[in-house]
Design a protein that fits this description.
Elements lengths: L3 H18 L7 E6 L5 E7 L2 H11 L5 E6 L2 E7 L7 E6 L2 H14 L5 E8 L4
Length: about 120
């Protein structure tokens, strides 16, 4: 017959195994909305892409378009000399890549002083 102490120890060990083995929630959908004149909205760690897209668009003022990021990072770069002019954005697996690419895109479209306006990472981005 097991002692109370032994039975309690085994029960605690079983609970710890279950806690470690239980999957974490799959929140890994995000979106980044981009509009005119530096307008943006962001949403991350949503359970579904549609919900993230709607949340990002709700934050963005004006006529905006949304890009989805799934376990990635998004960045928006605007031209400080003309915030309503050239801009660039990117979605990449790592934040450094998205920041660099968004800045390059801004310069590619004619920006003179491109700076990062906003960025967001979702899940493991």
């Amino acid at each position: 017959m097991l002692s109370f102490r032994t039975a309690r120890g085994r029960a605690m060990a079983a609970l710890m195994v279950l806690a470690v083995a239980a999957p974490a929630p799959a929140f890994a959908a995000g979106a980044f909305a981009i509009g005119k004149c530096g307008a943006y909205g962001q949403a991350f760690d949503y359970p579904a892409e549609d919900a993230a897209r709607l949340a990002a668009l709700k934050q963005c003022q004006g006529d905006c378009e949304a890009i989805v990021m799934r376990r990635a990072c998004a960045a928006l770069s605007i031209d400080m000399t003309n915030p309503c002019g050239p801009h660039g954005y990117a979605v990449r697996p790592q934040i450094s890549s998205s920041l660099n690419e968004a800045t390059r895109e801004c310069y590619k479209f004619g920006g003179k002083e491109c700076v990062i306006r906003a960025w967001a990472c979702d899940g493991r981005g």
